[in-house]
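Comment thread on ticket #2218

A.B. wrote:
> Attaching the input chain for the structure job we discussed in standup.
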Amino acid sequence: MRVPLSWLREYVDVAGGATPDDVLASLVSVGFEEEDVHGFSLTGPIVVGQVQEFVEEPQSNGKTIRWCQVDVGEAHGGVRGIVCGAGNFFPGDKVVVTLPGAVLPGPFPIAARKTYGHVSDGMIASAKELGLGEEHSGILRLVELGLDPEVGTDAIALLGLDDVAVEVNVTPDRGYALSLRGIAREYSHATGATFRDPADRPFESLEQPTSGFDVSVVDDAPLRGRVGASEFVVRVVRDVDPTKPTPAWMVARLTLAGIRPLGILIDITNYVMLELGNPIHGYDLDRLSGGITVRRAAAGEHLVTLDGKDRALDPEDLLITDDSGPIGLAGVMGGASTEMTGATRNVLIEAAVFDPVTIARTARRHKLPSEASKRFERGVDPLVPFVAARRVADLMVEYASGTLDPVGGALFAEVFAASIDLPRDFAARLIGVAYTDAEVVAALETIGCEVSSDDAGSWSVIPPTWRPDLTDKWTLVEEVARITGYDRIPSVLPLPPSGRGFTPSQAGRRRVANALAAAGLVETPSFGFTTEEQNDLHGSADGAHLPSVKLANPLDGQAPFLRRTLVPGLLQVAHRNVARGLTDLALFEIGTVFIPAPGVRYGTDVVPPPAVRPDAATLSMLDAAIPPQPRHVAVLLVGDRVAKQPGQPAVAFDLADAVDAVRAIGAAAGLSLDIVQTTRAALHPGRAGKVLAGEVEVGYVGELLPSISAEADLPGRVLVAELDLDRVLDTARGRVVATALSAYPAATQDVSLVVDVAVTAAEVERAIVDGAGELLEAIDLVDDYRGAGLPEGAKSLTFALRFRAPDRTLTAAEATTAKLAGVAAARERFGATLRE
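C.D. wrote:
> Ran it. Output below, let me know if you need it in another format.
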């Protein structure tokens, strides 16, 4: 909300020396967010001049300029010669002259300069050049604004161009602050300055029309039991002159407030909307057919709105209609068929109170946010429409030469605000400040509440009509804290009990994340939403359909399912980075996946009340409404592991790098992971392995199929791995045993075994470990040979073995004995033989 300070001063006493920053600081103290300060960004000298005469001079480029003699007053040099390209002014006209040294918005400095054969000693300005609108077809003639000032008058002050506006962000629950009335009241709360309510007019003085024009509300399909319009008032102003100029002060205020001036009739309705917070709509009375009916749209109805678009209407849309059909989207935008134009002579003024939910849904359905809908969907003061309609009528009488007609119509509704019970000690208990009873009552009465005591140790509080957001004792206490000052609320950090830290699972996840980051991978959290096809492809080994949880109200209609796997999210992250030129990526993510049980429907329509601790039954119901959510860890590698550089060719990521990442996860979890060759629908045949923790399968690792990589627009080979991290950590729990480091030297030996190619290296390694016993400290596969010197269908696997005893130095014979015991176990299981 932009607030011109000259306008604010009409309703609240702002100190004469207060700067925009001072005003913003005061508004921030009562809970608003500071946004910006807006002005016209010009400096003088800018004065009123009078055109004495001009000579039209055609130019070789086809343009005709006027060499003008303009009197700017003796104090500013008398008559000056000025070149002007506009042709909409006449001798004797008073205009705005920007003299050398002035600076216009842009910035555009003015100086005496030679042009078209003359020295132009200044510039005659248009409205656009002064920042007063978009009109630039001609210079600004002051007579068109109804002004006849003395020559030499300061035009900046005359046109209100010395005004500034402060902008604050208004949260959705404080719609009353989308008006000068609301902001002035809040400034009064912050400073104690006297507030003058522009809506404070006795009902009887408004001379409300109650007959003469038919107005009805027919709502057979109310939302939440509330009809679309609870109040509706129309007034008639006749014989208006739409060509009358909008007063300069009103143009300046609307411009500073961010509203484009559009002519006196529309400017007045916008001005009152900003002033009182109640949107107003004006109709060309002569283009209406019969009375007005507010109703829901019928199937197949259309409406051409003021923006020129033909809109297909929804049965939930609330319409303003006459005998011809729809003439406006209630609370959102009027229709083109009855808009006020330059030919309008009689105006029907509409002010109403519409259901906020209806207006919000209509604006979103038609993608048509407007200044009106922004206010109606937050709730307007139900006591204001009658004041606002009369205020518009009075301004049209004063500035558009209209005549107020007693004919009109109105629908009244009883305005009832339910009382709220507020225990006397509740504010102190909730906020942590020892408020006195007097402070609480004063704060509530300051914002307009009626407070009375009862015998039960509580207050009965009736909130003001302009605060629909005050609905319970919590919102009342929030106002007490706001008005008495947030600076009184103590800042106290809770002290954690001694001896507590991460749970074992939290510590394990932290170790895994740190290990992957230390290995050079980058953590990239992604959204938890995907498609059913991606869940099936990456979530199952054979690509078969798996149950997935579909959201009732997804953020993205193309990805309405909760993820069963982290890989689709990593593919999206990789695609986004590759598209921006980052082609070498090592990514990982630790996050939850959602694994529903087959045939179980998740979700609930029961929502526990806020601010009430749920009981055990409610918690059990909520737990049952969500699917199991285990944490997974996934890795994606694409591009080069080593970049090309002098003396070093590029080295691309390969399957070994993905396997190393898996082993890093296992090491961080305190678990030895085995990898056994397997097949998966999304992985390249022969380049896929399942990850085992003992006999428990905990995940997979491999290279994506080229077709899947190409579909994700990723270049080259893409390596992925995904593990059930919760299962890994659960398996590791109890297996991690701290052992003392041996001070004795190790004995190392190699062994090469010939086995059938169908036997995996992991199986042979496991046999050697089982056979060698406790003396074997480490084993690594160092070679896999297939070729000459071996029988057909056989391969040679070479392992590096390290033996160590905790209590003595091993002899070579002891190491050899242990090695041969491992060889014997491999021979027994797989027919392995020592390679000659």
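A.B. wrote:
> Thanks. Noting for the ticket: Residues 747-834 form a domain with the Alpha-Beta Plaits fold (CATH 3.30.70.380).
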